[in-house]
Amino acid sequence: EVVVHAPYLINLGNLNPEKSEFSYNILVNEINRTTAMGCRYLVLHPGAHVKAGDEAGLNQIILGLNTVMHENMTCKIALETMAGKGNEVGKTFEELSSIIDFSISIFSLTGSTVFTSFSTVLLLVDAVFVLPSGIKLSSPFPRPPLLTAIILLLY
Predict the structure, then answer these.
(1) Quick check: 115 pLDDT over 50?
(2) What is the pTM of this model?
(3) Average pLDDT over residues 113-131
(4) Which of 102, 126, 117, 125 is nearest to 148 (CA)?
(5) Could you tell me which residues come within 8 angstroms of residue 42 by beta carbon, excluding any fewer than 6 positions away?
(6) Helix/strand/coil (H, E, C) string of 80-118?
(7) How many CB atoms lie within 10 A of CB 107?
(8) 27 close to 45: Cβ distance less than 8 angstroms
(9) What sign does the CA torsion over 18, 125, 53, 99 have?
């Protein structure tokens, strides 16, 4: 099965309105391309908060995901772990869990039914990024109640 990796240009954590809009547009295009190719998975690094703080970055990523996800989406977004360099968000299982949990909550408030079981967002645990961040692969993941799948990449 082919898995598409979104361009690294996308930064859903940036609070700058112009840069957020730029990231949203690229991500929407990638979702459309992934769908057009018949691929089921689009891998995405959540982003960096660019000196705005972890909480602000998390909230911005949640807003970004909920801005681009739509009812007709057939591909799944696989949020990939980050290495934890600089201002990166998504460097811990707790941060990724928060993004997924709150995205579920916000989207369900819109009244859309597309995300029953929230099968549109997955977690991709990439050992290349997890190990430098200090997380041990044996660490328990605080699994959001509606998270349906975790993909583990080992090289």
Answers:
(1) no
(2) 0.76
(3) 55
(4) 117
(5) 3, 4, 5, 6, 30, 31, 34, 75, 76, 77, 78
(6) ECCCCCCCEECCCHHHHHHHHHHHHHHHHHCCCCCCHHH
(7) 19
(8) no
(9) positive
